[in-house]
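sorry for the late reply, my laptop died twice this morning and i had to redo everyting from scratch. anyway the thing you sent over, i finally got around to it. pasting the sequence first so we're on the same page, its 127 residues, then the predicted structure underneath. double check i copied it right bc i was rushing
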Amino acid sequence: LTVFIPVYVFLALPVASALANDPERFLERNAKLQWGIMVCVYGMSHVPALLLLDFPNYEGRGAFLVFFLVAVVQTSVIAQHLLGRRFPHRPVAPQVSQSFQWLSWSVGVAIGGLAGVALSFITPFKV
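ok and here's the structure:
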């Protein structure tokens, strides 16, 4: 069932688009829509699974794993964004993000890693 739904939705989207009788930029439009669904729906659907994981001596505390994920990722993203704004250089993809640079991204990943180490006590895993 987990494979059945995404596969048939991915097949149904271009069919619905074709039935709308709008051939202008058909492939580009459908590719963007399908990748958007893949990233947003399918990728994010794994977050609630953290609530269902069963670890010894960690029953009923899956919400801490969701908090850990959100806190670490947001710390990394905020650090990357602030560094990119504070020390402006030529952005890698200026049409997508004015603050994304490889150096600020690397520092953001490192700060996210440190945040993960600092919050490791709320997870069932060792540092």
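Residues 4-46 form one domain.
thats about all i looked at so far, will dig more tmrw
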